[in-house]
Amino acid sequence: MSSVLRSKKMIIPAAVLAVGAGATTLWAAEDGPQETVLDCGTFNFPKCGNSDTQFDDSFIESAPEVTARAVGGFGGEAECTPERTPVVFVHGNADRAVNWDSDITGPVGDHPVAPLSVYDEFRAAGYSGCELFGLTYLTDAEQKAPQDNYHEPEGYAEILDFVDAVRDYTGSEQVDIVSHSFGVSMSMAALTWDAETRNGEGWDRVERFVNIAGGLRGLGSCRVVGYANPIAKTCGSQNVFGEYVFGFHPDGAGYANNDWTGAEGPHSLRSMPSLHPDVAFYTISAGSYDQVHCTPNDRFEECAQGALFEPSENVRAQIDVGTGTPAAHIDNDMSDGAIFNMAAGDFDGVGHFKAKNNTGRILVEMLSTECRQAECTITYEFGPAVPVAPL
Questions:
Q1: Contact indicator for 288, 304 with CB cutoff of 8 Å
Q2: What confidence score (pLDDT) does residue 343 get?
Q3: How far is residue 71's CA from residue 52's CA, in Å, rounded to a whole number?
Q4: What does the pLDDT read at residue 326?
Q5: What does the pLDDT read at residue 337?
Q6: Host H or E run for residue 57
Q7: Across the strands, what pairs with 312?
Q8: This prediction's pTM
Q9: pLDDT tens per residue across span 344-360
């Protein structure tokens, strides 16, 4: 249990809503964000234009080596005492930490526009700057070449060192992790790698883990690209010489073997909750409207399930928020550095990126209440949100 108690003290809402089996949700959208310590700047979907380094001086002084090595990030607030389990945000491929403050670009169908970014939703819910942290672990060159990025121990060490720096700064034994896409599998692999190779605490560091559109079962598009294509290293299978080096190719026979995207074993991403029963797991998925998961010409049922955990008592909620334009098919033109078309729900609904940007209200519920399934969507009115079960 975290040494920092999970506080239920939030901004006083206009109303208190009863949810499900006695759960209580506190919210007041009109209160808006509190004074922010992260600023997106000019926004051009899907990215913010402001500086990626927005650490508070107090956090830099607390962890000079970690913050100096980081490409960027945010977090910390002088003269601030954490009252909740601190949150560590881990971005996806081609992304950076500042984009957790991304603007909301438009309405989803007949639903109202979400008023606040993910970061500002947490601030509006009463989280302080000393309870919210983000790390940029991809260099500028890596951000510009996402097809070359894969899971490897150097990245794991950077994430783990940042988590430990947050723990030291806040005095908390544990953190909550909110991760998107590549950041989901990077974080999960890092926690597993630490426990098994460095005799570290691994998953003991984490109280709650939120997976947003993670490639838990690999990416269907990688079946078309191939498990050893030098033009798209991110689609590789598990390295035969190093079990902690892998890409997003779904598990297959022979050299295409990938324990991480497979269904069984201690490295199976989809089965990780059953291996760590003391951690609460959550999923937000865009289902078949996710243009990263759903780009092959077939297997659409498979891709819609790509971000889902296997059943386990500690998987508290798996929510499909996808809607809008159906996902486009595979893009075999690698000249733009992408293995998929920038299409699907993000055009006019919710796809791979807006599953992150639009759902701050759900994320707050997941981390600040004891919600399960539909209870976690009670304050979300900015698009459909359907509880789903895995295959």
A1: yes
A2: 59
A3: 8
A4: 80
A5: 52
A6: helix 57-62
A7: none
A8: 0.89
A9: 788 889 999 999 999 99
Residue 310 CA: distances (Å) to CA of 17, 225, 306, 316, 371: 31, 26, 11, 12, 19
Question: How far is it, in rounded angstroms, from Cα 339 to Cα 188?
Answer: 23
Going by the DSSP 8-state scheme, the letter that residue 95 receives in this structure is -
Task: Please state at what angle helix 182-197 crosses helix 153-170, rounded to 10 degrees.
Answer: 80
Beta strands in the chain (DSSP E): 15-19, 23-27, 43-44, 47-48, 53-55, 72-75, 87-90, 132-136, 175-180, 206-212, 280-285, 315-320, 386-387
φ, ψ at 197 (rounded to 5°) = -115, -25
Residue 164 carries which side chain, given as an amino acid letter? D
Q: Which residues pair with 90 in a beta bridge?
A: 135, 179
Structure tokens at 301: 């049922």
Domains annotated on the chain, with CATH: 15-387 (3.40.50.1820)
Which residues have CB under 8 Å from 115's CB, separation 6+?
Answer: 29, 32, 104
Tokens 């791979």, residue?
352
Lookup: tokens for 362: 């759900």
Q: Which residues contact 66 (CB under 8 A, 6 or more apart)?
A: 161, 162, 165
Q: Which two tokens stand for residue 367?
A: 């981390």
User: Contact 211/286 with Cβ under 8 angstroms?
Assistant: no
387 upstream amide cis, omega within 30 of 0: no
Tell me the three state secondary structure of residue 66: helix
Answer whether 217's CB lies under 8 Å from 270's CB.
Answer: yes
On the 0-12 / 13-18 / 19+ scale of CB atoms within 10 A, 320 is: buried
Number of neighbours of residue 49 by Cβ within 10 angstroms: 10
Whether 48 contacts 143, CB under 8 Å: no
> CA-to-CA distance for 25 and 18, rounded, in angstroms?
7
Q: Which amino acid belongs to residue 235?
A: C
Q: What is the pLDDT of residue 296?
A: 62
pLDDT of residue 15: 23
Q: Coil, strand, or helix at residue 230?
A: coil
> For the chain, which residues score pLDDT lower than 70?
1-36, 296-301, 328-343, 390-391
Q: What is the pLDDT of residue 90?
A: 98
Cα torsion through 244, 248, 253, 257, rounded to 10: 0
Backbone angles phi, psi at 305, to 5 degrees: -95, 0
Nearest to 293 by CA among 357, 216, 230: 216
